[in-house]
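Late entry, evening session. Most of the bench is empty. Finally got around to the prediction I had been postponing all week. Sequence below, unchanged from the version circulated by S.P.
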Amino acid sequence: MSYLLIIVSAIFVNNVVLSQFLGICPFLGVSKRISTAMGMTGAVTFVMVIATIVTYFVQKLVLVPFGVTYLQTISFILIIAALVQLVEIVLKKVSPPLYQALGVFLPLITTNCAILGVAIMTVSKDFNILEAVVFSMSTALGFGLALIVFAGIREKLDLVELPNGMKGAPIALVTAGILALAFMGFAGMV
């Protein structure tokens, strides 16, 4: 039951983008087309889960035992940046088609604060490794859900006649606000 609670909470109730406002830059920047939103979702899911696992073990095996937990944020940032670079190098050598598909999104993930936020949240919530992986995967799916729904809405908005002052960023922000309100309706579930 606890894992189901983590999943529902991370995807719907405490959505990382719409409730906690982490990862707003890719949410607004990569959400113009569903295809790019799906590519970003895949890349974020992969990096978020791997980063959570690595940062979890660094926290438990290095930072806490040596009493240097004050280095948590900087070490997590360095781990995420190194991990993204490592994934990029490995994908370039092992699977060039996958690298081509994710190539545009991988550098963007380095600066995605949702990745760092999830790594810090798993430590602060004192999850075990399995709960941390479930939480990170669910959070990434929630990020993807919000991103893909938002991209679909933005694609439909391109077909609608809007006043000149509402075209582009203004209508995107209004739509994001309405989408966040819609996700607030799930707040009573958990």
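Two things to note before I forget:
The mean pLDDT is 87.
Residues 34-63 form the longest helix (30 residues).
Will write this up properly tomorrow.
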